[in-house]
Design goal:
The chain has about 400 residues and is an alpha+beta fold. Helices cover about 60% and strands about 10% of the residues. It has helices spanning about 5-25, 35-40, 40-55, 60-80, 85-110, 115-140, 140-145, 165-185, 190-205, 210-235, 245-255, 270-280, 280-295, 320-335, 380-395, and strands at about 260-270, 300-305, 310-315, 340, 360, 365-370. The strands form two sheets. Strands 2-3-1-6 form a four-stranded antiparallel β-sheet, sandwiched between helices. A two-stranded antiparallel ribbon has the order 4-5. The radius of gyration is 28 Å and the shape is elongated.
């Protein structure tokens, strides 16, 4: 997910991290019985229902299948796992070993639909596991069931780990996979999976009751729901190619402007000719380069992708004369930024001998038109049109300038 790095960090860390801390603090209180009994089992059931509905409605197969895994595992732990016999112990060990592994697996799989051919394979992966465990228990194949409580770590660590060692290692593996993909690569859904695994792992390490454990499961699914909402918001309001705020976000920002502001329209010079010469893939790289420069604009400017090769910058509370120096600085920065066009016949792997002429440096310039709110142009759309007219004056005057 492209965009502001700080914003990406906040959206991957704050929602799940905040809910994790709140639940840890609340679960440490002693007077929990009344409200826990009230929420159990309505809260996790509501969270599962909403997540499955969102996953199906928005075709988010990752959310749908992981929620199904959580619901199945939680149901087994709260029913069969609560039995104080060998079957209950085996079911608990098996679920706590397989659950984090399933979450890690589904975090690695791409979105391929729920009821597609790939989706049917995922359904099979989910459903075959409890079937195998049931068959092993039913036919008393205890040798194979023993893998879920086999000591793996040094014996000195056994007394310090409240889980069976296969389950403990599975949780650590799932935390490592989801932490890398979510917190390091800053992917909201994978980050939500990290907090989900952390919530379940913590509840098992502490040894909460089944009622409190259900609250941790429900909160973990809530983190997933928040991640999907964030992703959906980003898809609606942020341009996928450049990472800038898109047209919908621009329309919303225009409606929130006050009585003093300036608007700049920016267009990449000779972009159609550039696309025809070097191809659309190289053209996309040009747009990304220009967008990266726009994110650095100062003076309170807020950049948006307007469409095609056009961009918009809003300067709330700024007169045109105040905004122009910042736009000139932007124009010069883009013009001075080297852009290397790679030869399409050049191999991806760097050869031992450099082939002369395999790359070419070209100049990228932009033309900018700026207008401000006046007695003649009082509405944001009117100021936007005035800025567009100024843009065409800049192009007609020779391009690579601010008008």
């Amino acid at each position: 997910m492209a965009g502001n790095p700080i914003r990406r960090i906040l959206t991957t860390v704050i929602p799940g991290g905040t809910l994790f801390l709140i639940l840890v603090l609340v679960s440490s209180l002693t007077e929990l019985s009344d409200w826990v009994q009230l929420l159990f089992p309505l809260y996790p059931l509501a969270a599962v229902s909403v997540a499955l509905l969102l996953g199906w409605r928005f075709d988010r197969s990752q959310l749908f299948f992981i929620t199904a895994v959580i619901a199945l595992a939680g149901g087994l732990l709260l029913t069969v796992g609560s039995r104080h016999d060998a079957v209950g112990r085996i079911a608990t060990d098996a679920v706590l070993t397989l659950l984090p592994l399933n979450i890690a697996l589904f975090s690695l799989l791409k979105e391929r639909g729920i009821f597609t051919q790939h989706g049917l394979v995922r359904w099979a992966i989910i459903m075959v596991q409890p079937g195998i465990i049931w068959a092993l228990v039913h036919y008393q194949q205890y040798y194979w069931l023993g893998i879920f409580d086999t000591p793996i770590l040094p014996s000195a660590m056994h007394n310090f780990i409240p889980l069976e060692q296969p389950a403990f290692i599975s949780f650590l593996l799932a935390l490592a996979v989801t932490a890398y993909r979510g917190l390091f690569l800053l992917r909201p859904m994978e980050a939500a999976l990290f907090w989900l695994v952390a919530l379940i792992f913590y509840s098992q390490l502490v040894g909460h009751s089944h009622e409190v454990f259900s609250l941790f499961l429900g909160t973990g699914i809530l983190v997933l729901i928040i991640a999907v909402i964030e992703i959906t918001h980003t898809m609606a309001f942020r341009d996928e190619l450049t990472g800038l705020a898109g047209r919908r976000a621009l329309n919303l920002a225009l409606a929130q402007l006050g009585n003093r502001y300036s608007i700049a329209m920016i267009d990449v010079d000779h972009f159609k000719k550039f696309n025809d010469t070097y191809g659309h893939n190289v053209g996309d790289e040009v747009l990304k380069m220009v967008a990266s420069q726009l994110t650095r604009i100062s003076g309170g400017g807020k950049p948006f992708r307007y469409g095609g090769e056009e961009f918009t910058v809003l300067f709330p509370g700024k007169h045109r004369e105040v905004a122009i120096p910042y736009l000139e600085q932007l124009r010069e920065s883009i013009a001075c930024t080297p852009f290397i066009v790679r030869d399409t016949s050049r191999p991806r792997k760097k050869p031992e001998t450099h082939k002369k002429g395999s790359t070419r440096e070209v100049a990228i310039t932009v033309s900018i038109g700026v207008a401000e709110r006046t007695a003649e142009h009082t509405l944001p759309q009117e100021v936007l049109k005035a800025a567009d007219k100024s843009l065409y004056r800049a192009k007609n005057a020779g391009r690579n300038r601010v008008a």
